[in-house]
Amino acid sequence: MVERDNEIKGATFTLSVLHITDANQDKIRALLESKVAQAPHFFNCAPLVLNVEKLDAVPDFEALKDLVESEEFILVGITGARSEAMKTAAKAAGIAVMSSGKKRAEPVAPVASKPEPTPAVIPSRVHVGPVRSGQQIYAAGTSLVVLGSVSPGAEVIADDSIHIYGTLRGRAIAGARGNTQARIYCQQLAAELLSIAGTFQLSDALPAGLIQRPVHVRLDKEQLRIDSIK
Predict the structure, then answer these.
(1) How far apart are CA 51 and CA 211, in angstroms?
(2) pTM to 2 decimals?
């Protein structure tokens, strides 16, 4: 039997991001508690990233880390740090400094443009049959088509749109790499969670009149909009 060496590979994960405008611990605790109350199983030991872009002063990262972990989340990093002092303080607290990948481009002198090659089209990933509890299906770089239902506790993820020809009872995460034009379609809505490009909605916030109905979900002004398919 041939043993393989250890290796590092790239992978894509869906992370919840908490945007904070000040470091008031009471406000942060109240927000986290409200989210856990909505979906205790989903958020139990869930990884969390803090967006500190709107903070002017360097917060007490040790205290924030203790606070987040006391609410059963796991703080894996921060994003949006605007100063080296903030980055240094986060690293000293054992918190990773992450990049959102949205840097403003520097102005450059105009150059003669060359026609770019047409990118290869990646066909949609098609899953035939139900997606069972505990199962995860991920369509990297493309859309996902599920010819069946998605059970509670199951998760379907796509970098583009998700089409479910059945009942959605689990979690559907479209636009996993930030595609705000991604959509979610399903024949019957009963989802635990809907997410497009990081904006999510839990089961208790779903419109009652659309439960068990065919729907189309899209991102509209940084909020999820759910419309009936007639």
Answers:
(1) 33
(2) 0.58
